[in-house]
Specification:
This is Colanic acid biosynthesis glycosyl-transferase. It is built from 15 helices and 14 strands. By secondary structure, the chain is α/β, with parallel strands linked by helices. Helix 12 links the parallel strand 13 and strand 14.
Amino acid sequence: MRIALLSDAYPPIRTSGAVQLRDLAQEFVRHGHGVTVMVPSQDLASAWSLESLDGVQVLRLAALRTKDTGYVRRTLGEMLLSFMMRRGLRTSPLCDVKWDGVIWYSPTIFLGPLAASLKRSSHCDGYLILRDIFPEWAVDMGLLSKGPVYRFFKLVEQYQYAVADTIGVQSPSGLPYMTPWSKKPGRRLEVLQNWLAPAPNTGCRLAISESSLAGRKIFVYAGNMGLAQGMDVVLDLAERLIDRTDIGFLFVGRGSDVARLCALAAERGLSNVLFHDEVEPCEVPGLLAQCHIGLVVLDPRHKTHNVPGKFLTYMQAGLPVLARINAGNDLADLIRKENVGTACIGDSLDELQALALGLCDNVAGRAAMCERAKTLSDSRYSARTAVSQIVSALSARP
């Protein structure tokens, strides 16, 4: 099949979404499919740039900045995203290509018009990889009220769904939200598990043994630090455990809340906490090999459910997980069923502390969890399985 894969992030961007799309694209190539990734870029001197990256054809299309900028500029950039990408595509060597399938990844919710245009010109089906229920989670968090802005985002969201022939949600908890959409004839709704390709340990420039956390058991958080995570509770936990000089907390990544969290840790004098900028994706295995427990943090006000990409990364590295997540999240049941860590539902700091110490002090139990985590990663979260499932959906139409 000749496939167009649309996303707003792809390497060298280092977000978990970008890495997931890279792994998916490379797996398509290994299966013998021709895949072209179309991704926006604010750094181009021309309307488009075509390159081959690790065997994958990548078409970068000029667009406004949507990352690491204010909410107003981000929203404007996202609103114009599909239209600017489509304009760049029209002047590129791929303007007349006929595709056998169009796949796009959400977030963002603003790629629907581009997906619709490609589907229409190629008379093919579209597959939406839905990893984020926006704007609902923003309402849950109190970031958005159900006024005109919400209604605008809701229209964009619904249009994106209308364009898709198949939608793959990342956990069973996402199915009820999408059930009304699936009742229209010709539509297919399914669970598409997250995926992660095998990654060797090639080392990491961040050496914990040379840091202020040397010699400690490390709780690591690797990923985005924004409002959706509610990271303050981890600093509260670190403050509770300040006298445990054998325990340290490492935060690696970026996000809208990093500066505030750093300042808060300094204000509290948390000598057991260390912040570090994001590392290259190839360095993540080397980073996690130096750590002992992976942290998954979601604000308990969330009513939508997801399995964060960082959870898969921890499983692949054989790290038991300490999760503080929202009620009803499938991840809690998964962690308990597979016995790969512990999960705290809600905002009880006492419970979180007890679970953290239980993991940290049970060396034998933690070692057994490490093996189960690796087994879970290999059996459930492979890019190979995701590609087979998507190809099956795109090939279903007679």
